[in-house]
């Protein structure tokens, strides 16, 4: 008969680990996702910064709603079938996840719009560099 008991979990000491009582608010580092059509339309009327693999639309929100930064993603049927659109959106999400916490600003909405034949196949490092460059230009050189 085989015992189904779980082995005891040993306490692992990690020398470089942060203390458990650190209560840093990480909500400002992870962007909230835009979900309402009205937010996308407001961003579409705002500033546009073209990049080789995508288009960045950005707007500063009203002063009463400046909690954190928000990001949205758009990939139309011009990009191809559902598989191609989903791949492009996954890549845009990953680019935003890498770049926006460091270079985005609280109180801003960003929308990344996919481009046909570019978003799904463009070099990922170049896409990250393009987004950093666009945010630097948008915010006047100081991000």
TrEMBL record:
Similarity-based family: Belongs to the RnpA family.
Database matches in SUPFAM superfamilies: Ribosomal protein S5 domain 2-like (SSF54211)
InterPro entries: Ribosomal_Su5_D2-typ_SF (IPR020568), Ribsml_uS5_D2-typ_fold_subgr (IPR014721), RNase_P (IPR000100), RNase_P_CS (IPR020539)
Gene behind this protein: rnpA
EC number of the protein: 3.1.26.5
Pfam families, sorted: Ribonuclease_P
Nuclease in keyword set: yes
Protein name (Swiss-Prot/TrEMBL): Ribonuclease P protein component
HAMAP family in UniProt: RNase_P
Known partners and oligomeric status: Consists of a catalytic RNA component (M1 or rnpB) and a protein subunit.
A Gene Ontology term for the protein's cellular component: ribonuclease P complex
Catalysis: reaction(s): Endonucleolytic cleavage of RNA, removing 5'-extranucleotides from tRNA precursor
Keywords, in A-Z order: Endonuclease, Hydrolase, Nuclease, RNA-binding, tRNA processing
Reported function: RNaseP catalyzes the removal of the 5'-leader sequence from pre-tRNA to produce the mature 5'-terminus. It can also cleave other RNA substrates such as 4.5S RNA. The protein component plays an auxiliary but essential role in vivo by binding to the 5'-leader sequence and broadening the substrate specificity of the ribozyme.
GO molecular function terms attached to this record: 3'-tRNA processing endoribonuclease activity; ribonuclease P activity; tRNA binding
Domain of life where this protein originates: Bacteria
One GO-annotated biological process of the protein: tRNA 5'-leader removal
